[in-house]
């Protein structure tokens, strides 16, 4: 996997980090989660920006959003008490299939 893909995957994971930090920030009223939110958001966007200079925009953005959505949903279910149902897991697996498809068809 090329550097652009590694950066893209890390940026997608950082999307999960900033989403989790945003939830923990209390609408940006808690200092440390708010700071983590801003830093992770900036790093995630910078990585996405780098990736789209090497990977087609639609592919890069779809993969980035997919990783972030899957990671954020999994975090919500594992740590925040979001519902864990077969239907939700199936929907997440469909997102995984889409992300894998975008990578394979790149």
Automatic annotation (TrEMBL):
InterPro entries: EmrE-like, Small_drug/metabolite_transptr, Small_multidrug_res. Belongs to the drug/metabolite transporter (DMT) superfamily. Small multidrug resistance (SMR) (TC 2.A.7.1) family. Keywords: Cell membrane, Membrane, Transmembrane, Transmembrane helix, Transport. This is Ligand-binding protein SH3. It is a multi-pass membrane protein. Pfam families: Multi_Drug_Res. GO terms for cellular component: plasma membrane. GO terms for molecular function: transmembrane transporter activity. Its main location: membrane. The chain crosses the membrane at residues 33-52, 59-80, 86-105. It comes from the Bacteria. It is found in: Cell membrane. Gene3D superfamilies: 1.10.3730.20.
């Amino acid at each position: 996997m090329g550097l652009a893909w590694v950066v893209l995957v890390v940026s997608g994971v950082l999307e999960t980090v900033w989403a989790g930090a945003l939830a923990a920030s209390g609408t940006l009223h808690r200092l440390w989660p708010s700071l983590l939110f801003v830093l992770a958001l900036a790093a995630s966007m910078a990585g996405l920006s780098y990736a789209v200079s090497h990977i087609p925009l639609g592919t890069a953005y779809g993969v980035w959003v997919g990783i972030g959505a899957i990671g954020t949903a999994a975090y919500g279910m594992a740590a925040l008490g979001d519902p864990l149902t077969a239907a939700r897991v199936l929907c997440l697996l469909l997102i995984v299939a889409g992300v894998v498809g975008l990578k394979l068809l790149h």
